[in-house]
Amino acid sequence: MRNILNRVKRISWLAVMAIGLSGCATSIISKEDAFPKMYQAKPVAILVVPAINNTTAAEAPEYYSTTIAEPLTRMGYYVLPIEVTNRLLQEQGIVDGAQLANVDAGLFKTMYGADAVLFVNINQWDTSYFVLGGDVTVGIAYELVSTTNQDVLWQYADTIVVNTGGGNSGGGLIGALISTAINTALTDYIPLAKQVNYRALSTLPFGGYHPKAGTDQKVRAFNK
């Protein structure tokens, strides 16, 4: 009887393990499964409109705009010159991407010849202080919209937090607070934004100018 019970327990445990492993396996999503419309639309030319700033840092969109073109180009896309397109939009009174939220994306195909428009939400561009510590946070959300049919081709969000705590500086509480303040003041947001971009855009299917374009369908995009 005891042997039978032991066997039942062992079988039950193996079943649980199998379910767990199965769950882990299905949690990994390929680029093709995550963003099938990217492979159908195959956009090449991307227009990056001014970022939507959901933070209190007024300078965030301007700083962020210097970080996005290079990683998009590395992924095989042609990025319409951001400085030029921003200036043209500003001439129309548009300084924030939120002003374009309800605009027909097809207009950007007519005006700029873009295959897709990248909308960026800056959700965090913050400095925080707490007892004996602090951190700097950059959080970005992305949405790539087709100018042909306004389909959302790709979307992603990511956040990076850098701890700027003074740690055990040997100067006690005052020393730690001073060290934290200095570390935080010296932490540059732009490198953090670049890290977020690279991490997020690595999930984007390769564009037509990349030598591996059309071959990355089965590459892992992210864990579901």
Globally, the shape reads globular
* Number of helical regions: 9
Strand content: 25-35%
Q: What is the first-to-last residue Cα distance?
A: 43 Å
| Total E-strand runs | 8
Main sheet properties: 6 strands, mixed
Q: Low-confidence segments, ≥5 residues, pLDDT <50? A: 1-26, 178-187
The radius of gyration computed from the alpha-carbon positions, rounded to a whole number of angstroms, is 23 Å
Q: In percent, how helical is the residue content?
A: 40-55%
Mean pLDDT: 80
Query: Strand pairing plus helix content: what structural class?
Result: alpha/beta
**Topology order in helix (H) and strand (E) letters:** HEHHEEHHEHHEEEHHE
Entry keywords:
two-stranded antiparallel ribbon, 6-stranded mixed sheet, 224 residues, alpha/beta, 8 strands
What does this molecule look like?
There is one protein chain. The protein is of the alpha/beta class. The chain has 9 helices and 8 strands. The strands form 2 sheets. Strands 2, 3, 4, 5, 6 and 7 form a 6-stranded mixed beta sheet that branches. The protein has a two-stranded antiparallel ribbon with strand order 1-8. Strand 6 (133-146) and strand 7 form a beta hairpin. The protein starts with a helix and ends with a strand. 27% of the residues are buried. Residues 1-26 and 178-187 have low confidence and may be disordered.
Structure summarized in a few sentences:
The chain contains nine helices and eight strands. With 224 residues, the protein is α/β, with parallel strands linked by helices.
